[in-house]
Amino acid sequence: MHAMQYEITLPADYDMGIIRARVAMKGHLLDDFPGLGLKAYLMRERGENSPVNQYAPFYLWSASEGMNDFLLGPGFQGIVNDFGRPAVQNWVGLSYAEGRAASARPRTAVRRRELLPESVDPGVAIGAAAEESLRQAAEPGAVATALAVDPRHWELLHLSLWEQEAPEAAGDRYEVLHLSAPERDRLGRGRQW
After folding, report:
1. Rounded distance, CA 123 to CA 108, Å?
2. d(CA 11, CA 45)
3. What is the 3-state secondary structure (H, E, C) of 3-61?
4. 0.90 exceeded by the pTM?
5. How many CB atoms lie within 10 A of CB 125?
6. Cα 104 to chain centroid, rounded
7. Is the pLDDT of residue 169 over 80?
């Protein structure tokens, strides 16, 4: 499993209705994309628990070939044509869990990034984070949770999707506009090491 996200930060006075309309018109285009476990079309608005207007789609890939095909093909080129080429962040998947509300449409997402200090044993820290992610999936309203790592910077990425408003937790909060999940069943369950 591979996790990927790009963030398009927009002007403070940007009409976020444009992003909503874009996702309503184009979101379904990845509903059957090969190699895509899931794509959460994430957005946050300035003043709504966010300091910025931002469109920040998040992907979990079940196959690297699908990720590469998307990035090098017409899918990502649409973003480039409309917004310029954003930096694409990526992480190696560590765990994925379906939540208690797995069949529900997610409405909220929380993303938390955590740097692992050099003094911390990565295996121990990642093991504890994976257990936390699996526990979170068992909470009422949880649709899914994922944990991934960028070993270049030793950064952990925690993502949780929620049926309604997410419980109070540290991290960036997003509205989920659409979820494409053609190969969600191919994302490994639990710890992936």
Report:
1. 30
2. 11
3. EEECCEEECCCCCCHHHHHHHHHHHHHHCCCCCEEEEEEEEECCCCCCCCEEECCEEEE
4. yes
5. 16
6. 17
7. no
Burial 167-178, CB ≥16 within 10 A → b, else e: eeeebbbbbbbb
pLDDT at residue 49, rounded to an integer: 82
pLDDT digit string (tens) for 95-132? Answer: 999 999 999 999 999 999 999 999 999 999 999 999 99
Going along the chain from its start, the domains and CATH numbers come out as 2-187 (3.30.70.100)
154: amino acid identity, one letter: W
Residue 40 in this model has a pLDDT that exceeds 80: yes
pLDDT in tens, 48-69: 889 999 999 999 999 999 999 9
**Cβ(61)–Cβ(2) under 8 Å?**
yes
Q: Please count the residues of the chain.
A: 193
Side-chain half-sphere exposure of 180, counting CA atoms within 13 A: 22
Asked if residues 177 and 42 have their Cβ atoms less than 8 Å apart, the reply is yes
CA atoms within 13 A on the CB side of 98: 13
Average pLDDT, the chain: 96
Half-sphere exposure for 4 (CA within 13 Å, toward CB): 22
